[in-house]
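Technical annex, item 7. During the second reporting period the consortium partners agreed on a shared format for inverse folding records so that results from different sites could be compared directly. Each record opens with the tokenized structure and is followed by the designed sequence. A conforming record, contributed by the partner at site C, is shown below for reference.
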């Protein structure tokens, strides 16, 4: 199992004092450092939005404990929440179209454990302090790596293992920042890419031993969506896309040759 060569921390880093990336993301880490050894990161890529949606639903239903699903629209938040509730789960949605009193109530219910899953748009913002969150799923790609780190670090604040999953299209074209694009491409320890993108000592990283690249964040099988007739999953190397077809055969392609339809 890989490990850090030295601790990644914002302490003593001039970029934090100058309002750089570290200053923007320092809050999630309870000890002032950026590295959270209990968080397991992975990126899954899919050929179509419905496959990503179906995977978010399955992961939320199958993963024990409380969790947050980040989505891009009110319609998606309501749809996911409704399907989770129809399956007998305790879920609530959170978006800007809700009355302020309703947003406060749902936030309170989730914080107190009355709701297991929160499905939220970017209106969710900050201020979430539930310590036993076991998973954070991004069905939307955040605008920056700093935003992704901030969202994902809501998981595992009790120090116990938690899974952070980003569901993404098969390749670029999203207009993401360079550091986020590098994280999505993979090819190295996800924590190393995170730390480097946040301005910490990612280059001194020897691997976390837990992410999808290091071997600890391997995803469960992805369900086949009938409209696609296949499920596309980005494996740990970051540049290879594995397609599983309905006849149980599989084939691996380089990501640069795969396009979403």
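Designed sequence (site C submission):
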């Amino acid at each position: 199992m890989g490990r850090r060569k030295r601790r990644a921390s914002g302490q003593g880093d001039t970029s934090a004092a100058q309002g750089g990336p570290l200053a923007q993301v320092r809050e999630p880490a309870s000890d002032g450092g950026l590295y959270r050894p209990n968080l397991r990161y992975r990126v899954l890529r899919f050929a179509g939005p419905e496959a990503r949606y179906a995977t978010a639903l399955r992961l939320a239903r199958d993963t024990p404990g409380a969790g947050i699903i980040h989505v891009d629209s009110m319609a998606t938040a309501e749809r996911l929440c409704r399907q989770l509730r129809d399956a007998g789960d305790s879920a609530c949605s959170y978006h800007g179209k809700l009355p302020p009193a309703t947003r406060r109530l749902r936030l309170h219910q989730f914080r107190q454990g009355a709701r297991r899953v929160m499905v939220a748009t970017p209106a969710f913002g900050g201020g979430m302090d539930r310590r036993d969150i076991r998973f954070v799923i991004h069905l939307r790609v955040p605008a920056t790596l700093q935003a992704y780190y901030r969202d994902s670090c809501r998981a595992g604040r009790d120090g116990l293992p938690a899974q952070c999953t980003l569901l993404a299209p098969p390749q670029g074209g999203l207009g993401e920042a360079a550091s986020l694009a590098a994280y999505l491409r993979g090819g190295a320890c996800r924590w190393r890419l995170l730390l480097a993108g946040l301005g910490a000592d990612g280059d001194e990283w020897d691997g976390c031993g837990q992410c999808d690249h290091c071997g600890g964040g391997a995803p469960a099988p992805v369900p086949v969506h009938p409209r696609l007739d296949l499920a596309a999953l980005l494996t740990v190397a970051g540049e290879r896309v594995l397609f599983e077809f309905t006849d149980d055969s599989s084939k691996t392609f380089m990501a640069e040759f795969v396009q979403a339809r």
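Helices lie at 14-17, 21-25, 49-62, 74-86, 100-111, 145-152, 178-185, 190-197. The chain is about 30% helix and 20% strand. All partners now use this format for quarterly exchanges.
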